[in-house]
Amino acid sequence: MSAAPANAPSITARDVALELHGDRSRRHLAALAVRDLREGLTLWRLALTLGWLDIRLRYRGSLLGPFWLTLSTAVMIGALGLLYGALFHMDVRTYLPFLALSQVLWAFLGLLIADACACFTQSEVVIRSVRMPLFVHALRVLVRNLLVLAHNVVVIVAVDLIFAVSPGVMALLCLPGIALWLVDSLAICVLLGAVGARFRDIPPIVASITQIAFFITPVMWKPEQLGARVWVLPFNPFFDLLEIVRAPLLGEMPTATVWGAALGYSAVLLALSWWLFTRARGRVPFWI
Q1: What is residue 62's DSSP assignment?
Q2: Helices (H), 130-233
Q3: Which has the higher per-residue pLDDT, 248 or 286?
C-alpha cells in the first residue's frame, strides 16, 4: 500500500465534524422551509381572507371600489388603442383586443412584482406578533393581485364582445400557462420579499427594471413588428411568460420555443427562490 504524499492536506476529526454539522444544518433549514411551505398552504383560507380585506381597506369609502381601476384601465386601453393603432397603421379591430389583453395581463405582472418587494415588510406587525408561516404572506399578495385581475378581466370581455372576437376552444390552452403563473408568482413573492426585507432600496430598482421590460416586451406593439428579428423575443423572459397565456386567448398556439423558454426561466426562478428561502426564512423577522 503506497504512502500518502508528504504535502497532502491532513483531514482531522474536527474537519469531519464540521462537515457533518454543515450537512445537518442545511438539511434542517430545508426541513423548516418545507414545513413552512406545507403549513402555509394549509392556511389558504386565511390568506384568502387577508387578501380580500386588503382590497376592501384599499378602496374603503370609494363609490366604485376596485372598479375605479377597471374604469381607468378601460379608458387607457381605448385611448392607446386609437393612438397606437394609427401610429402603427394597424386595424383597430385586431389591435385593440390584443392591446386590451396584453395590458391587463401585464398590469397583473407589474403589480405583483411591485407588491412582492414588500411581501414581508408590509406585514411587519403580523410577523413580529403572531407565529405564522411566512408563506402565508406570499399567498396573501397573490390573492390580492388575483382579485384585481378578476376586476380587470371585465375590460377584456367587453372589448372581445364589441369586436366579436372569440378564441374558441384554443382558449383552454391558457390553463397550463396560468398554473405556471401561479407557481412563479409565489416564487417571486418569496424571493423579492426576502431580498426587499434585507435591502430597502430593492423596490425602486425592481420598478425601474419592470418599466424597461414593459417597453422591450410586445405589450403595446405586436411581435411580428420586429420582422426578421423576432427570433430575439424568446430571450426575454417576460415575453415567454406573457405569451403562454396571451396567445391561446387570442386563438393562437404558443410555439414550443416559447414554452421551453418559459419552463426554463421558471425552473431557474424556483431554484433561486427556494435556495434563498431556506437560508433567509429565519432571518426575515430580524430584517424587517
Answers
A1: -
A2: 135-162, 174-198, 202-216
A3: 248
C-alpha distance from residue 141 to each of 37, 52, 223, 279 (Å): 15, 10, 31, 21
% pLDDT > 90, the chain: 44
Q: How far is CA 116 from CA 3, 28, 194, in A?
A: 58, 26, 9
- The CA-atom distances, in angstroms, between 263 and each of 178, 205, 259 are 13, 25, 6
pLDDT in tens, 181-202: 999 999 999 999 999 999 888 9
Residue 157 burial class via C-beta count within 10 angstroms: exposed 0-12, middle 13-18, buried 19 and up: exposed
Q: Which are the contacts of 245, defined by CB distance < 8 A and separation ≥ 6? A: 105, 174, 177, 178, 181
**Do 266 and 177 form a contact (C-beta atoms < 8 A)?**
no
HEC profile for 15-34? HHHHHHHHHHHHHHHHHHHH
Banded pLDDT at 240 (limits 50, 70, 90): very high
Q: Which three cell numbers stand for residue 101?
A: 389583453
Asked if residue 46 lies in contact with residue 130, where contact means CB atoms within 8 angstroms, the answer is no
User: Per-residue pLDDT tens for 120-143?
Assistant: 998 888 888 888 899 999 999 999
Spell 164-181 as b/e; 16+ CB within 10 A means b: ebebeeeeebbeebeebb
Domain ranges of the chain: 43-287
Number of neighbours of residue 224 by Cβ within 10 angstroms? 8
Lowest-confidence pick of 25-34, 91-100, 266-275: 25-34
Q: What is the DSSP string of 243-276?
A: HHHHHHHTT-PPPHHHHHHHHHHHHHHHHHHHHH
